[in-house]
Design a protein that fits this description.
six-stranded antiparallel β-sheet; 33% strand; 434 Repressor (Amino-terminal Domain); Jelly Rolls; 190 residues
């Protein structure tokens, strides 16, 4: 269980054991493990094997869903303050990194950033695509999206989404800056 606080399970097991008035020794005997192992698990010093966890859960008559319910409510939040945004500038294009929603498998990871293109600037490559999907919302300006052999004009308030494995290029065709909110999945890690 990657990212799991080692004291999370121990705290819950100790809470139930004490509420039920069960001693460390009694729980250890019922679960078929040593008293010192139960103590170390409760103090977050060791993580139990699956067999040991199931034996403890069975001995305390615990519901596994209850045991892990709070874990579902304590996932990390990615917060990037405006003053802390990572900014990358390449040939008239500025990427302001907003946040990355991570996923252990990367299957559902998403990266979001503000995209600013000076007049005439472009991002992407009309000859190459990459795996994943993209979604963009134009906040200000006018752009041309060349996607494969098609071209789309996108203006303020318009949004676009597409599979990124087709070669694509976004070009600012307006007289002023193009500003867009852009998301990619999986992240490109600019």
């Amino acid at each position: 269980m990657k990212g799991l606080d080692s004291g999370f399970l121990g705290d819950k097991i100790r809470e139930v054991r004490e509420r039920k008035g069960v001693t460390l020794r009694t729980l250890a005997e019922q679960a078929g493990v040593s008293e010192s192992l139960v103590s170390q698990i409760e103090r977050g010093k060791v993580s139990p094997s699956l067999d040991t966890l199931l034996a403890l859960v069975s001995s305390l008559d615990l519901d596994l869903d209850w045991l892990f319910r709070d874990l579902k409510r304590t996932k990390a939040v990615s917060l990037v303050r405006k003053s802390e945004r990572k900014i990358t500038r390449l040939s008239g294009v500025e990427y302001q990194h907003l946040s990355v929603m991570k996923d252990d498998s990367e299957e559902h990871a998403v990266e979001a950033y503000y995209l600013t293109l000076e007049p005439g600037s472009e991002t992407g490559d009309p000859n190459y695509g990459h795996s994943g999907r993209e979604l963009g919302v134009v906040l200000e300006g006018r752009a041309s999206l060349v996607y494969g052999t098609s071209e789309y004009i996108i203006e303020a308030g318009d949004s676009v989404s597409f599979s990124s494995d087709i070669p694509h290029k976004l070009r600012n065709t307006g007289a002023g800056r193009l500003i867009a909110l852009w998301m990619t999945s999986p992240p490109k890690r600019r």
